[in-house]
Design brief:
With 352 residues, the protein is an alpha+beta fold. The protein is 34% helix and 23% strand. The longest helix is centred in the middle third of the chain and has 21 residues. Pfam families: Creatinase_N (PF01321), Peptidase_M24 (PF00557).
Length: 352
């Protein structure tokens, strides 16, 4: 609690309205955070939710709860916040919810961004363990589905089998819409899964993850079906090498843009830089995409170029995409350690 109190003090706040679902869950343990709000103040943390969740909130939450409708939430909070400086998450609060906060007539409302995300950058051992379990479930799902990968199978059927496996083996849900993209569709970085039938000679990209007790995993692999072209083999081999080089560069103190440049620079040497169209990676935790961002340095956004720290969990995911040919992305989930990094993902790679 002291860390949270210091956070408020350092930003000149007496309290903070928390509406971003991952932050609501982080502060309260409430597993339906989209239907909750948290009031963080210097005397503690209070969860607001409605009567549908009375029993659930009592069972799950490690903070006090107040059960009320929207209008009654403001009436209750007004008694706590009179004359106070109250922050709100400007990047997450809907306009209609902000209008409701205007009911706090005696409080000064201040927009904020990224306050709790800064604390969430470094995972506790308990958080890391939950991410490990999410990744373990996802790795097993890949091993379960891989024998089903063959010509004549629809992409969507493989995605369904992955989701069913994860849900039936301890996951709360998939971490995001599962990508199964084959052939020409593998040139779509976020191709999800379609009714396309996989053909012989195609490269198939899988991007998937599990959510376990609120925490996510994220991995990408690509597998050939039968014999693939030399062009696709080269794309795969160069992507794999870029991945390995970037992993070797991950350590505390390394700048996020420098890690991105390791992979991007290698691919540029191969004449492939124009086909690497996204950033190298991102943080993973209660949100599937969170800080830090591992991206090309931009003078316009220097705040996104930060040093890695032990306890961060990030993805490393170079990819190459050529329209009409196909593409490949390979992604590992890693924990930054005191001496380098630990790869948390253990799904098999293809031999190409």
């Amino acid at each position: 609690m002291q860390q949270l109190t210091d956070l408020l003090t350092s930003h000149g706040l007496d309290a903070l309205w928390v509406s971003k679902p991952e932050n609501v869950r982080y502060l309260s343990g409430f597993s339906t955070p989209k239907d909750g709000l948290v009031l963080l103040h210097k005397d503690g943390v209070l969860l607001y939710t409605d009567a549908r969740y009375t029993v659930q909130a009592e069972e799950e939450c490690f903070v006090p709860q107040h059960i009320a409708r929207d209008i009654d939430v403001i009436r209750h909070a007004r008694t706590l916040l009179e004359g106070k400086v109250v922050g709100f998450e400007a990047d997450a609060l809907m306009v209609n919810k902000l209008r409701q906060l205007d009911g706090l007539h005696a409080a000064q409302l201040v927009p904020t961004e990224g306050l709790l995300e800064g604390i969430r950058l470094i995972k506790t051992p308990e958080e890391v363990q939950k991410i490990r379990e999410a990744q373990r479930i996802a790795d097993e799902a890949m091993r379960h589905v891989l024998p089903m990968l063959k010509a004549g199978v629809r992409e969507v059927d493989l995605a369904l089998q992955m989701e069913l496996y994860m849900r039936s083996h301890g996951a709360e849900d998939r971490a995001f819409d599962i990508t199964v993209a084959s052939g020409y569709r593998s040139a779509m970085p976020h191709g999800t899964a379609s009714e396309k039938v996989i053909q012989e000679g195609e490269l198939v990209t899988f991007d998937w993850g599990a959510r376990y007790q609120g925490y996510h995993s994220d991995t990408t692999r690509a597998f050939p079906v039968g014999e693939i072209s030399e062009e696709l083999k080269n794309l795969y081999r160069h992507t794999h090498q870029a991945l390995q080089l970037a992993l070797q560069a991950v350590r505390p103190g390394a700048m996020t843009s420098d890690i991105d440049q390791v992979a991007r620079g290698y691919l540029a040497e191969q004449g492939l830089a124009e086909h690497f169209v996204h950033s190298l990676g991102h943080g993973v935790g209660l949100a599937i995409h969170e800080d830090p961002r591992l991206a090309k340095f931009s003078p316009e956004r220097p705040q996104f170029n930060v040093p890695l720290q032990a306890g961060m969990v990030v993805t490393i995911e170079p990819g190459l995409y050529i329209s009409g040919v196909g593409g490949v992305r390979l992604e590992e989930l890693v924990l930054v350690t005191e001496t380098g990094c630990e790869v948390l993902s253990h799904a098999p790679f293809a031999e190409v």
